[in-house]
Amino acid sequence: MIYNDGYRPILGEKHPRALGLPFREVWPEVQMELAPLHESILSGERSAFFAEDFLLRIQRHGFRWEDAHFTISYSPIPDASAPSGVGGVLITAVETTNRVLMEGALRKSEERYRSAMHLGRIGSWEVDFVRGIRTWTREGMALFGIDLPDGLGQLGGQSDEFRQAMHPEDRHLLGEYHALTDKQDSFPAEYRILKSDGQIRWLAGYGHVLDRQPNGRAHRVINVATDITERKAAETHQRFLMQELSHRSKNLLTLVQSIADQSFRKSKDQKDFQSRLSGRLGGLAASNALLARGDWRGSSLRELIEFQLAPFIDRSSSQLEIRGPEVNLVADASQAIGLALHELATNAVKHGALSSSHGRLSISWTVDQTPSAGRLKLDWRERGGPVVTTPKQKGFGHVVIKSMIEQAVRGNVELDFAKEGLHWSLQAPGSVFLR
């Protein structure tokens, strides 16, 4: 081996010992890859060899192995005295390890970037106002649901793919965004697009002017956008909840005021008033707690019954039977039925079936959820308690379990004060069902 100074870094710690030694002694670790190549050139079988970023596993710093890349050129050195006419091999080698590693890192970085763009549903594109074209990234086209050769689109006219993708009601914004590029370097954007499958998606992002024309108008603008459809849906739902909360609060305060007024009128004294009011507000609170779990949209009828009866009787008690299909009620119906159930349970504990260890309470319901004529029938039956007599006076409890609930659900209540036990029955239209 005879080499110049440029080859010394490639040799590492093998220099200067390598100078004048046979190649196979200097580089024994690469003989499997290179020895056949050398022999083919020395024998005249191969005239030359060239390779870019050729990978070799070498030891040039003690016993440490490393992967190195080289762009190499092998040429025969003519020698008339040699049997094959080739007396040696001229090797030109440029180490490319750092560049290959850098390119690999850049590729990985680009892959991570593209993965992040894909996962974040982020797309970008560049607008050239001078050439009248729009250049899309793959992520940008995927975001808009378009596919263009080489990602090249048209700026303006009927073939403007961006304008065509925009929701018809938002297309006027495109002209406004273009006008903004002449006034400021960066601007926010938010609009809807209509995809080919009919989906409407909300996008939000920014535009930034990269350079301007001599007259000051924008030349090139880079744009980035992300899909915010879910965020928009969440904001809409949040607004609905706030409006619903305001509506419920007003209704609730009106209901509380009515309960307080009626309880006061029918109470014997302050202690009786406190007892009546506390119990009824507790029943109302139980219904509202259940509604809150369902975002105030409604509640399960079975859970509503169990919530209201929980302060009065254990669910597993042999005195209690609850049966009926699973059905969900709208919020207004849940509140009204909840109050009625609480009033019925209070009366059952004081005077009815639950005031005796022999008493039995059966709550059952049937449903018909036919869209045009659905109905709910809810029955409360008491048996085995004290002999029932028809009350001489109708207090607020009667208002709650009959007129108030009839008005709230637009239904009909039947009350039977049979001697063997109270029977309360509610029939309500399909509007009480949460669909």
Q: What is the string of helix and strand elements?
A: HHHEEEHEEHEHHEEEHHEHEEHEEHEE
The class by helix and strand makeup works out as alpha+beta
3D shape: elongated
Instruction: For the record, give the distance between the C-alpha atoms at the N and C termini, rounded to a whole number.
Output: 87 Å
For the sheet with most strands, the description reads: 6 strands, antiparallel
List how many beta strands DSSP finds. 16
Low-confidence stretches at least 5 residues in length (pLDDT < 50)?
A: none
Rg, Cα atoms, Å: 42 Å
Q: Share of helix among residues?
A: 25-40%
Task: Please work out how many helical segments DSSP would assign.
Answer: 12
Strand content: 25-35%
* Biggest sheet strand line-up: 6-5-4-9-8-7
Name the descriptors:
435 residues; alpha+beta; five-stranded mixed beta sheet; 12 helices
In terms of topology, how is this protein built?
Elements lengths: L7 H4 L11 H4 L4 H12 L6 E13 L2 E15 L7 E10 L1 H23 L2 E7 L4 E4 L1 H7 L7 E3 L6 H5 L6 H10 L4 E9 L5 E13 L5 E10 L1 H38 L3 H24 L4 E3 H9 L10 E4 L4 E3 H20 L9 E9 L6 E9 L12 H14 L2 E7 L2 E9 L6
Parallel strand pairs: 11-13
Antiparallel strand pairs: 1-2, 2-3, 4-5, 4-9, 5-6, 7-8, 8-9, 10-12, 13-14, 14-16, 15-16
